[in-house]
Specification:
four-stranded mixed beta sheet, two-stranded antiparallel sheet, about 230 residues, alpha+beta
């Protein structure tokens, strides 16, 4: 099995839990706006497809069932014009038709792009879809009404060049469930060290966070993340 990038693992893990989340074509603009904040690792010369469009099409392909970069390329090549237009694929100035990136483009972008930046962008998008807003959170005088579960898993089918599986620490809402944030747990560290970076970007006032027993640490308790 060919090695997959950490970004592919992020997309796969998110798609596995997002199938019940209502997202329509009108939401594509916001997703592309957020993905546009992800730094493009490529040299400007020769770039035909924006990094936001490549990532958005890849995310749609994975959500549709693609389990490899090759499958993403095949899905994109067969995608209807209306889908490619919504995901802002490059439009041919002569024919007026939207063209999908080649599989090699997907492979290069997913390998080079910052997986954490992609995850943060998608996490913000999903958080907005499930209605996380500080103004809607209960006050400190009332019980928390929403829950977030933090758990770490090896991602099936996502293999690193050294043959090891990609291990992600994910924060998932109880209701849908939907992944709001993920962290790649490198082999030289562990889930404990990645908990704070995982939760710091999220506004969790009024939320109850459930964790595995291994996170029963003094430092975690002092930071009041539970």
């Amino acid at each position: 099995m060919p090695a997959q990038s950490a970004t592919f693992a992020v997309l796969s893990c998110t798609a596995a839990t997002a199938d019940e989340l209502p997202v329509d074509a009108a939401d594509c603009g916001r997703l592309l706006e957020l993905l546009g904040l992800v730094p493009d690792p490529r040299k400007r010369r020769g770039v035909r497809h924006s990094v936001a469009a490549v990532l958005a099409i890849a995310a749609a392909a994975v959500l549709a069932g693609s389990r490899s970069v090759l499958a993403i390329g095949e899905w994109a090549a067969e995608a209807p014009q209306v889908v490619l237009a919504a995901l802002r694929a490059r439009r041919n100035p002569v024919t007026g038709r939207f063209g999908a990136p080649h599989a090699d483009t997907f492979r290069r972008v997913l390998r080079l792009v910052d997986a954490d930046a992609v995850d943060q962008a998608i996490g913000v998008f999903l958080a907005e879809r499930v209605g996380i807003d500080a103004a809607e959170c209960p006050s400190q005088d009332t019980p928390a009404t929403r829950g977030l579960s933090v758990d770490g898993k090896a991602v099936r089918g996502a293999i690193q060049p050294d043959g090891r599986a990609v291990h992600l620490l994910a924060a998932m809402t109880h209701e849908l469930p939907t992944v709001l944030a993920q962290r790649d747990v490198a082999h030289k560290t562990n889930e404990i060290t990645q908990l704070k970076p995982l939760l710091d970007p999220l506004e969790l006032t009024g939320w109850a966070v459930t964790l595995d027993a291994l996170h029963a640490q003094r430092e975690t308790d002092r930071k009041s993340v539970v």
